[in-house]
Amino acid sequence: MRLVRFLGKAGACLGIELKTGGVANLSELCTELGMKAPGDTVEFLTAGAAAWEKAKRLSESSTGEKIEKLSYLAPLIKPDKIICIGMNYKDHCEEQGAPIPVEPMVFSKFSSCITGPYGDIEYTDMTETLDYEVELAIVIGKKGKNIQESNAMDYVFGYTVAHDVSERKWQLQKNGGQFLLGKTMDTFCPIGPVIVTKDEISDPCNLTLKTKVNGVVKQNSSTQQMVHRTPALIAFVSKFFTLLPGDIILTGTPPGVGCFRNPPEYLKDGDVVECEIEGIGSIINTVRYCL
After folding, report:
1. Could you give the CA distance from residue 259 to residue 169 in angstroms, rounded to a whole number?
2. Rounded CA gap, 5 and 39, in Å?
3. What's the gap between Cα 56 and its chain centre?
4. pLDDT tens track of the chain, all 291 residues?
5. DSSP line for 230-289
6. Which of 65, 102, 207, 217 is most exposed by smallest CB count within 10 Å?
7. What pairing do the DSSP bridges indicate for beta strands 156-163 and 114-115?
8. Partners of 131 in the beta sheet?
9. How many whole angstroms separate alpha carbon 198 and alpha carbon 94?
10. Model-level pTM greater than 0.70?
11. Phi/psi of residue 54, nearest 5 degrees
């Protein structure tokens, strides 16, 4: 199932992308489920597996409607948590000459930095070293704490593409070495274009992921390079806090980011960044100067 959130006549709606290219509108089902907002993915996930199964059955009998891609919104907004994992690709560690972490390196982004799959990335006076990072994002489907690695996949709803936009000076040189300010400025987390349920991704650790800047490939690797994989990440972070439906885990980025190039290459006003993951799709975001 490929869950999408789009702008309909009455506002944000949920739908399911069909193989025919159309979208099955879930607005009536959302009303039937008693959802307060038909475009609230977190509320839909909280409704549980029975609701998801109803949505899947509805999509199987739907002819769908044509929805322009530019009407696609971020497939999920206002999660309780955006959890990020640093240094989680072997080849990314190698490009820095850094040791492979024994335990996951965890930081976070504010949910307010989420933007859509085709929205602009804001370039401001605070972003002189703006960088790109393609990441596979895990979307949590149910509440859990102290989850065992052996059943961690039971807590996964699906996956989406994330762009962990980063301001390197604020991440690495300022703010006492804390990542937060360099990672969580407005629009610093484009996601989408859909959330693909886990049953449609046979092996999340065998997916090609790429970044292109103005059509030129900058990152090109595989999730096979992950150090800590989905079950291990879920088990680890759930030791410290409760995971909730809609929480997102960004699982790290491969090599090729701008700050480790020689010379460094940073994004500028007008650049177009495409992040693509096999089996999910692409998000395309333009960097725009913003006062």
Report:
1. 10
2. 7
3. 22
4. 999 999 998 899 999 999 988 999 999 999 999 999 999 999 999 999 999 999 999 999 999 999 999 999 999 999 999 999 999 999 999 999 999 999 999 999 999 999 999 999 999 999 999 999 999 999 999 999 999 999 999 999 999 999 999 999 999 999 998 999 999 999 999 999 999 999 999 899 999 999 999 999 999 999 999 999 999 999 999 999 999 999 999 999 999 999 999 999 999 999 999 999 999 999 999 999 998
5. HHHHHHHHTTTS-B-TT-EEE----S--GGGSSS---B-TT-EEEEEETTTEEEEEEEEE
6. 102
7. unpaired
8. 166
9. 30
10. yes
11. -60, -40
C-alpha–C-alpha distance, residues 75 and 126, integer Å:
28
- Inter-residue contact 132 to 258 (CB < 8 Å): yes
Q: How far apart are CA 115 and CA 164, in angstroms?
A: 11
Q: How far apart are CA 78 and CA 156, in angstroms?
A: 18
Nearest to 142 by CA among 280, 44, 69, 217: 44
Chain centroid to Cα 142, Å, comes to 17
Neighbours of 58 (CB within 10 A): 16
47 in Cβ contact with 33 (< 8 Å): yes
